[in-house]
Design brief:
Elements (H helix, E strand, L loop, with lengths): L3 E5 L5 H11 L3 E6 L10 E5 L8 H11 L5 E4 L19 H25 L4 E5 L12 H19 L7 E8 L12 H12 L8 E5 L1
Parallel strand pairs: 1-2, 1-4, 2-3, 4-5, 5-6, 6-7
Helix pairs in contact: 1-5, 2-3, 3-4
Family: Belongs to the short-chain dehydrogenases/reductases (SDR) family.
GO molecular function, one term: oxidoreductase activity
Keywords: Oxidoreductase
Length: 213
């Protein structure tokens, strides 16, 4: 049975590093973003979806299933730009349409990806790239914070549900060496190493994973 990874958000750091890591470990890899790419061979394909539109998520899994089979690993790495609507000193100033897009990309589409992957493989390992906003309130980043907090909640619920075993679900939060939020200094290779390590562990670990890099 082929090992298959689907990576939502194929940016230059976490997305690309994760694709390389899983390819090197013998996985077939599908990367997903809004931007079309010509990448395609026996082990790597790029697919397009808009993470702000949850209806585009299920077809990604249909395409992967038809090409290779059911994914064994899903990395949901939403671009930070999808949630970084600045609210200044007024956390109630975000336009509703911007708030809706943020929630769709950071929470609803992630939930759709987890649901679609579990439906196809009840042993899937699902990873969500979070940050410290599930425990830290920043009025200037309220829309992103709500999205991350909501996803941390359902991920922890999924991880604690015996009905979903042996699938595993993780919210990944990188900090710097001092323990502060990594911000824009995220380490793609460190994320990729952690994803692969946890993917190859068959038991659910602590679902909220805070690590330093």
């Amino acid at each position: 049975m082929s090992k298959i990874a689907v990576i939502f958000g194929s940016g230059a750091r976490i997305g690309q590093a994760s694709a390389k890591k899983f390819l090197s470990a013998g996985y077939k890899v599908a990367t997903v973003s809004r931007t079309p790419q010509t990448t395609s061979d026996d082990d790597l394909v790029h697919l397009t979806a808009d993470l702000q539109d949850p209806s585009t998520i299920e077809p990604i899994f249909d395409q992967v299933q038809q090409r290779w089979g059911a994914p064994s690993v899903v990395v949901y790495n939403v671009p930070s730009a999808y949630g970084m609507y600045p609210t200044g000193g007024n956390p109630l100033s975000a336009p509703i349409n911007e708030f809706t897009k943020t929630l769709s990309a950071n929470t609803i589409s992630a939930y759709a990806a987890a649901s679609a992957s579990y439906k196809r493989n009840n042993q899937v390992a699902f990873f969500y790239t979070g940050n410290a906003l599930n425990t830290t309130v920043m009025p200037t980043l309220v829309t992103l914070g709500v999205g991350k907090t909501a996803s941390a909640h359902w991920i922890e619920a999924a991880a604690k549900s015996e009905q979903l075993r042996p699938a595993r679900f993780y919210y990944i939060d990188q900090r710097n060496q001092a323990g502060a939020p990594a911000g824009n200094a995220v380490n793609g290779e460190a994320h990729a190493d952690l994803f692969l390590k946890l993917a190859e562990q068959k038991e659910q670990g602590e679902p909220i994973v805070v690590f330093k890099a």
